[in-house]
Amino acid sequence: MEFGEFAETAAEIEALSADTEITERVTRLFERAGSDLPVVARFVQGRVFPAWSSETLDIGPNYCYEAVARAAGTNVSAADVEERLADVGDIGEVAASYEFGGQQGLAAFGSGDGSGSTDLAVAEVAAELDALADAAGSGSRDKKIDILFGLFNRASPEEARYLARIVLSEMRIGVGEGTVRDATGAAFDVPVESVERALQVSNDYGEVARVAREEGETGLDALELEVGRPVQAMLAQAGTVADALDDWEETAIEWKYDGARVQIHYDGDEVSLFSRNMEEVTSALPEIVEHVEEHLDAPAILDGEVVATDDDGDPLPFQEVLRRFRRKHDVARAREEVELDLYAFDCLHANGDDLLRAPLTERHDRLQGVLTKGVSALWTSDDPDEIADIEASALDAGHEGIMLKRPDSAYSPGRRGKNWLKRKPDVETLDLVVTGAEWGEGRRAKFLGTFLLSARADDAGDEFETLGKVATGITDEELADLTELLEPHIRSQDGQEVDIQPEIVFEVGYEEIQESPTYSSGYALRFPRFLEVRDDKTPETADSLERVERLAEEQ
Question: Could you tell me if residue 105 is inside a domain?
Fold first, then answer.
């Protein structure tokens, strides 16, 4: 498929508003994608690599700005590109505003006739982006920019629009995972249920689309979990003991740990560890690797929580865990400073058997059968007093509270449903995306001090609506850390106010949600306070505006 045809279709999709029309258009795109189908299924979501892969392009926005500027001509600088971006707010629009094709150099392959070549193929773009991701070490920055320059130099304005968006993971044409799932089913006449199950076990939209086309329902149903290939974590929503006992005959209860989610893969020889976002963190957690090697008796995929502990074995705050997850260097020293313990609570695969569809209680039995130490306890009860006692014991041990789970529920990767409920004894919290900030004043002038918070407005995580600012509950030390974390994501600045690319998620407490015309969501948080950075969450998994509305109604 020519990349120009893909770009033309993307523009048509972006102009649509109805979900059914978008799905129909993606369906037709898949039907004629040919051998490029796996790449097209990823590109249309703004992905370059399979969802399970931790591989990234490893480029910042400035790389893209410089490549665009070089392709645009000698009179255009990266600063010019950034300034235009501040005006229009869309890197795709900026890229499309330039005439490319006349610049020469090592990477200026193609016609070079100054007219702008439109013969880019989807496969070529994918291959060049693979090469860009592989560039590492000395000189890699220049090589990455050369590759991008070569692509932009051959691109038409429409191609440049969507190339820039794909490169910076800002596709935003209204195509989410559900759209690709439904379009795959419609394009190749296979049940959506089979597509969804295949996506759960493979976490690869391109491969599932290919199998659906070439092998049909039988091929999809034959796909299985693969040790070493992470899947999305099953998620919980807020709930109460009354909710659980009203909906189920009894509830399963686990302690809720103030740690970081980890998915454990063991093939019988090697251990791989993945964060909630499916980023590989094996090298950062050597004691967890050692624990698994010593206590896991069979090839398996486990779900669990890693908790930081002090010298007495008592749990430390979540931020201490994140220090370990972020650590790339001096891991041995970090291990001496912050020790980690594993609490495994679920088993997705054991000794050749996929267990996603098995009941929770059966999965826990299999977990106890393969892991000899580090298994989180699981109780079942229909007695509110007994459940309260379990919660009290969790709090006494220094943990957050309890999880309530439907005993016969399957494991649904990536799903946030009513089968898992998280109960906390304190006020409700929200996981919100930082979309703006303000520089502080006085002694805090060098730090970002007030943060604009937004809720996810759609399932694709493309749009966000504001509902408040938070500046309380943050120490000077935390402000320094937050400033360092957020500065690379600043898109533009106007006086003290900065616009921030949606990347970072804060957990925020509050007293009340009020209706308010001040923010685009129509709501405002009363007395919001910062609790922590949710490094284990992405904008796509942050709380939705729908949840904000539901919480407001339940007050």
Answer: yes
Residue 135 covered by a domain:
yes
Full residue range of the structural domain in which residue 536 is found: 429-554
* 513 and 436 housed in the same domain: yes
| Same domain flag for 489 and 538 | yes
Residue that the structure tokens 């006349």 belong to: 102
Q: Global pTM?
A: 0.72
pLDDT tens digit string along 463-507? Answer: 999 999 998 768 788 899 999 999 999 999 998 999 999 999 999
- B/e letters for 375-397, b = 16+ CB within 10 Å, e = fewer, are bbebebbeeeeebeebbeebeee
Q: Where are the alpha helices (DSSP H) in 327-383?
A: 331-337, 360-370
CATH number at residue 340: 3.30.470.30
* Residue that terminates a domain, selected from 365, 396, 423: 423
Rounded Cα gap, residues 191 and 193, in angstroms = 5
Contact 475, 539 (CB under 8 A): no
List pLDDT tens digits, range 314-372: 899 888 888 888 777 788 888 888 889 999 999 999 999 999 999 999 999 999 999 99
Whose CA is closest to 403, among 261, 218, 554?
261
- Residue 108's pLDDT band, with cuts at 50, 70 and 90, is very low
Final residue of a domain: which of 148, 167, 186? 167
Q: What is the pLDDT of residues 39-70, one digit of tens each?
A: 999 999 999 999 999 899 988 899 999 999 99
H helices of 236-346, in order, are: 241-247, 286-295, 318-326, 331-337
Catalytic residues: 256
Say if residues 486 and 437 touch (Cβ distance below 8 Å).
yes
Tens of pLDDT, residues 71-86: 998 889 999 999 999 9
Which tokens belong to 62? 């400035």
Give ∠ CA 141-275-37 in degrees, rounded to 5. Answer: 65
Q: How far is CA 237 from CA 97, 191, 421, 454, 492, in A?
A: 44, 28, 5, 19, 34
